[in-house]
Amino acid sequence: MFLRVARHTNNLEAIEDFYVDILGFERLGGFENHNNYDGIFIGKSGLDWHFEFTQSQTKANHSFDEDDVIVLYPKTILDYNELIKRLLQHNISSIHAINPFWNENGQMFLDPDGYRIVVSPLKAEIDEIN
């Protein structure tokens, strides 16, 4: 099965900068003026999932709550530390998560649309123990 998570945005350029330049994903492709939509595909090549972000004349109206999060598990503690450093260097401050688990096991940030992203070292810590 292949997974695509699609989301509309009002600022495709800022979203691409955040997910590619800061978080380290790849721009896998994109399109312009397809039925009045522009879009990009972001993920990691060779995997069976990706994000699709679209922009059109219709403005995005995001509705989510504080427990709606995307969780990223860097592969190593070094990768985790580098990602946190990159986020902070781009003046993206961590925020407090309503779910205490994420405050104890990672750091939460907002993407340009206000969606919550958690960066957690849990997988890297478990892999390094094993």
TrEMBL record:
Q: Which UniProt keywords apply?
A: Dioxygenase, Oxidoreductase
Q: Where is the VOC domain?
A: 1-122
GO MF annotations in UniProt: dioxygenase activity
Highest taxon in the source lineage: Bacteria
The answer to whether keyword Oxidoreductase applies is yes
Q: What is this protein called?
A: Glyoxalase/bleomycin resistance protein/dioxygenase
